[in-house]
Amino acid sequence: MTQTVGVVNGRLSALGLLRLGLPMAGAMAAALAGHFAVLAVLARVGGDALYLRAVYVPLSLVYSAITAGLSMSMQAAAAQEVGAGNPEGVGRQLTGFLVGGLAASAVLGSVLAAGGSAVASLVGVGAADEPAFRAFILAMAPAMLFPVAGEVLAAALRGTGATGLGSAVGLTYLVIEIAGVYLLATVFGWGLMAVPAAVCAAGAAQCGLGVLLCRGRGVRMGRRMRPSAAGRLFLRIGAPVAISYVVLFALNLGYVRILAPFGPDAVAGFSLVYTLQTLIVVPGIGFGSAIAIVMNQARGAGRPEHAWRALRLGMSVTAAGYVLVVLTVVLGGQALLGGLAADPAVAEEARRAFGVIAPTWAFMGCMLTAVAVMEETGYGIAALAGNLLWAGVVLAVGWALTSEAATPVPLYRTMAVANVVGLVVGGPLGLLLLKRTAKAGRGRGDDR
Predict the structure, then answer these.
(1) How far apart are CA 246 and CA 428, in angstroms?
(2) Residue 62 is part of which domain span?
(3) Which residue from 5, 25, 69, 288 has the fewest beta carbons nearer than 10 Å?
């Protein structure tokens, strides 16, 4: 009989869920911590470096969409091949996903580089900063090829069961990137251009280590690719994840556009807070994936009582964890943000945004966890529709209230209220759907 993950002696435990969910959430948190660390270094450098990196954030989310979609698909493909007793198939899948990832990244980089002026206008960069921003985009285009490939290699390792080795590949990238940005920006004075140089070096090291570790696991890239199988798997698993990142891209782009009239200090200060928010709330998606894994396995095994308990227990653990994390962050965040930015105006804006938005991050974290469960248990369309509606309302109301204001505070208040309303209104509706699915045993999502 198949043993459901997290179930011990016939009973699902919070400890079992945590053992499954914390590594997944931790991997997402580690990657996001790298972005925050880079912004923190640039904040200490001063000048326009932090501002230009901040307005690039929406574009980086498009790269993240490609990376996240491909890595989750590759991980699932590797697990399926190993589970089917066909480990040599992992190499063929890996080749297909690497070729697809490199091609998609190259096309995206070329489009961004070719449309430099239009892209700068899209994110609200002024004429004075446009040459530096265009040079940054041009340098990032080839640099981003390496980390996309490196993450696919790490996903292949995780899919074969070598989660520790996969994490080591990702950690290698983070350490080299952060150290590289710090040395090049603060010691050698490269400023913003330290980022693409560090990304390139870190990604190359990540790829090299990934190839070596994959070979050690017997995973060798084959000449006979399986592009059709990789494409189908991406459409089924990776595409919903990628679309979620595209929604984040649109949301972040909207925020940058709303803040642009208030000047670079407002954009840079908000970017620090928004990156910290992402670091806090997005790992909830990883824990939501863990809940969904247990629910899907329990339903597939004909044990709906385990699926329903996984949902209730998982959301309870999520809520308790977020209350503790957000309380800790709120108590110490003001001092942290104030010490990061070299420019007092940027630090002041960061503290102002943090004071309004941060207390509601627990609501947003729980909401994202529930959305992740919905996406992976057969309600991806409903989750996407809810995300689009929520993002559209936030941007429309935030723009309307802020357009005539003297400060960006109305936007911050809109975001805070939306976090609370999103969970209070959307949460019960989502849980109602999930409850019906959990108690139905084999149902929606089993045939995906």
Answers:
(1) 25
(2) 46-236
(3) 5
Residue after which a domain boundary falls, among 171, 201, 236: 236
Sign of CA dihedral 252, 28, 324, 312: positive
In a domain, 120, yes or no: yes
Burial class (CB in 10 A: 0-12, 13-18, 19+), 443: middle
Residues 422 and 276 in one domain: yes
Instruction: Tell me the C-alpha to C-alpha distance, in Å, between residue 447 and each of 50, 155, 443.
Output: 46, 23, 8
For residue 413, count other CB atoms closer than 10 A to its CB.
16
Q: Domain total for the chain?
A: 2
Dihedral in degrees, nearest 10, Cα atoms 135, 138, 142, 144: 80
Residues 183-224 have pLDDT tens digits of 999 899 898 899 999 999 999 999 999 999 999 888 887 666
In a domain, 179, yes or no: yes
Claim to verify: residue 415 and residue 280 sit in the same structural domain: yes
∠ CA 76-81-86, rounded to 5°: 170
Q: Cβ–Cβ contacts within 10 Å for residue 435, how many?
A: 14
